[in-house]
Amino acid sequence: MITVNIYYSGEKGNARKFAEEMTSSGVADRIRTETGNLRYEYFFPMDDPETVLLIDSWADQAALDVHHASPMMGEIAALREKYGLHMKVERYISDEAGIPEQDQGFIRA
């Protein structure tokens, strides 16, 4: 699994407006239905009202490549431009072994 954290930053609440329009326009829901998408969720950092965090997870690189080649990326790019957003991206590949046993005791289920 590949997880991409994208921090969208702007001014005057534009990052939040972007996330709201991604949701209200249905683009976010369409991404969630793409083959291989495992998670597509927006979060709002408590200490930074001008940033929105997107957590976007995919089954594998092939699924992510298909998403990046889709016409939907044009829609997303247009909305980012509309709101004048900047991005910081972090990419993570999941550990197939899962959470080690010695760490399990720190997790409250």
Describe what this molecule looks like in 3D:
With 109 residues, the protein is α+β, with helices and mostly antiparallel strands. The protein has 5 helices and 4 strands; from the N terminus they run βααββααβα. The chain has helices at 14-24, 27-32, 61-68, 72-82, 101-104; strands spanning 2-9, 37-43, 51-58, 86-93. A 4-stranded antiparallel sheet has the order 2-3-1-4. It is globular and about 45 Å long. It starts with a strand and ends in a 5-residue tail after the last helix. The mean pLDDT is 95.
Summarize the structure.
This protein is of the alpha+beta class. The chain contains 5 helices and 4 strands. The chain has a 4-stranded antiparallel beta sheet.
How many E strands? 4
Stretches where pLDDT is under 50 for at least 5 consecutive residues are: none
Average pLDDT figure: 95
Counting H and I runs of at least 4 residues, what is the number of helices?
A: 5
Distance between the first and last residues' Cα: 22 Å
Percentage of residues assigned to helices = 25-40%
Beta-strand content bin = 25-35%
Read across the widest sheet, the strand sequence of neighbours is 2-3-1-4
Largest sheet: 4 strands, antiparallel
Apparent shape: globular
Radius of gyration: 15 Å
The ordered string of helix (H) and strand (E) elements is EHHEEHHEH
Structural class: alpha+beta
